[in-house]
Amino acid sequence: MMQLTINGIPHELDVDPEMPLLWVLRDILGMTGTKYGCGEALCGACTVHIDGHAVRSCVTPVRRASAKAVTSIEGLSPDGNHPLQRAWTEMGVPQCGFCQAGQLMTAAALLKKNPRPSPTDIDRSLAGNLCRCGAYNRIRAAIQKVADEAKQP
Q1: 91 with 49, same domain?
Q2: Please, what are the averages of pLDDT over each run of 10 residues along the chain (153 residues)?
Q3: CA 41/CA 53 separation, integer angstroms
Q4: 64 with 21: CB under 8 angstroms?
Q5: Is 24 in contact with 58 (CB distance < 8 Å)?
Q6: Domain range for 43
Q7: pLDDT at 57
Q8: Could you give the CA distance from residue 31 to residue 75 in angstroms, rounded to a whole number?
């Protein structure tokens, strides 16, 4: 039995410890916000947080999440009102939306670690997240907007 805390809720699951965390989230728990993109940790669509660190859930065995705090896109904000989610909407970031959960989770981990990132910091953080629609400029602008608002008193 695996003991997991996902989005603040404890779960006891009878799953193979080597099962990718992505499949536990999607197939076992029905949390489909985290997307399957490439299955090789190359696109970032499956990004979640483990103890606040962005990880690619498609290649992360669920055993690595045992006794740790996992946050998926569903747990970023209970009401969808996280500053990044608001900025995403205000800046018109989403198009197809497929990569957005991974982009948001990567950005949230960056801002937690570095609340005032430079444009270079933002680019480095997002380097492994692919957007097929090419919304990179709007993604960067939304992250910068949140960082700039955090600087104000």
Answers
A1: no
A2: 95 97 98 95 97 97 96 93 95 89 97 95 95 93 94 67
A3: 15
A4: yes
A5: no
A6: 2-76
A7: 98
A8: 10
pTM, rounded to two decimals: 0.94
- The CA–CA distances, whole Å, from 123 to 49, 63, 153 equal 19, 31, 26
Class of residue 153 by CB neighbours under 10 A (exposed 0-12, middle 13-18, buried 19+): exposed
In terms of Cα–Cα distance, which of 104, 65, 110 is closest to 87?
Answer: 104
Domains: count for the chain: 2
- The answer to whether 118 and 73 are in contact (CB under 8 A) is no
Q: Count other C-beta atoms under 10 Å from residue 19's C-beta.
A: 17
The token pair at 26 is: 């999607």
Last residue of a domain, one of 76, 105, 124: 76
Query: Is the Cβ–Cβ distance between 126 and 107 less than 8 Å?
Result: yes
* CATH number, position 64: 3.10.20.30
- DSSP labels, 77-109: -TTS--HHHHHHHHTT--SS-TTHHHHHHHHHH
